[in-house]
Amino acid sequence: MEETSIKRKESVKEALGHTIWLLLLPIAFFVASVIISSRAVSYHLDRSTLHDYDKKADLGLVTIASTRASDNAGNGYEIPESVAVDDGYFSDALFFGDSITSGLTIYDMFESFNVVYKVGVNTHNAMTEEFTTTGTGEPMNMIEAVKYYSPRKLYIMLGTNGINWATTDWLLDGYRELVKAIMTENPDCMVILQSIPPVSESKSIENPSFSKENFHLYNDGIRQLAIELGCYFLDINAAFSTPDGYLDPSYAAPDGVHFGYAGYQRWHDYLVTHTVQGGSVYRISDEGYVVKNT
Questions:
Q1: What is the dihedral of CA 13, 19, 24, 25, to 10 degrees?
Q2: DSSP string spanning 245-262?
């Protein structure tokens, strides 16, 4: 009898345990759904309030008055020095270029950003070649990348491959067609054309096609192209040049063309202090806050 009574008690406990579990299960699902929902709402609120006047924010997220080539042609803008922003500014940016640009991923220069690059690419084959991409890892051409990432800011650096064997006009003709195609695919994207950095003095002597005069001529052409197409120009070359116009040795890799870590840190620091402001309904105040232009 005693053994039977114990078994009955254990059966009752087991049944009671199953009942409690069945009662708690829907409650657990409800609590989980509330947490997930609140996080989703919080994420969207965080994105939607990036431009509250009392917060430091990503100025580049606002659409400038017009970035369509047909509407803004002839109104390009050279980006001057500005109040430093944090890395969040580049969370909606895409960097596109050759092996120099690839170093941004190697040294992981920003907290959150995307890079599309290919070693050896020039301004003419940029629309057809398949590039290595961050995020997906899937190869895609430039136009596909612009469509996939849908960036609000696109930083392009092209021309180092070609400046030593092609004419400036040839390089700029390819650049022009590339930028037009990008602006057609994503007319709200702020296209930022970066000048190409100099090479070391020894590299220039070794290969006269890498002369500082060639770099100056090509970079001036990029500046004029930005004005012509109504996009932005950022003079990266100025950040790396010695007074003589060569790549500062403290930033150079051994080959005299690419950067070492210090060079990429310099690039990062230059980018965060040279951000898009002109033409926007917002600007960054001297205190570092987003305020509306009046």
A1: 120
A2: SSB-TTTB-TTSSSB-HH
Rounded Cα distance between 184 and 172, Å, is 18
Token reading at 254: 């051994």
**Tell me: domain 59-292, CATH 3.40.50.1110, correct?**
yes
Interior/surface letters 197-230, b for 16+ CB within 10 angstroms, e for the rest: bbbbbebbeeeeebbbebbeebbebbbebbbbbb
Give residues with Cβ within 8 angstroms of 281, minimum separation 6: 62, 64, 65, 292, 293
Give me the helices (H) in the chain, please.
2-48, 69-72, 99-106, 142-149, 168-185, 201-206, 212-229, 237-240, 261-272
* Secondary structure of residue 93 in the 3-state scheme: strand
CA atoms within 13 Å, Cβ hemisphere of 167: 3
What is the reported pTM? 0.70
* Of 247, 252, 246, the residue nearest 264 (C-alpha): 252
SS (H, E, C) 168-199: HHHHHHHHHHHHHHHHHHCCCCEEEEECCCCC
pLDDT tens-digit series, residues 37-61: 333 333 223 322 222 222 223 333 2
Q: 94: closest CA among 49, 156, 7, 139?
A: 156
Which one-letter amino acid corresponds to residue 118?
K
Contact, 183 vs 67, CB < 8 A? yes
**7-25 per-position pLDDT tens digit:** 555 554 555 555 555 555 5
Cβ-contact 192, 151 below 8 angstroms: no
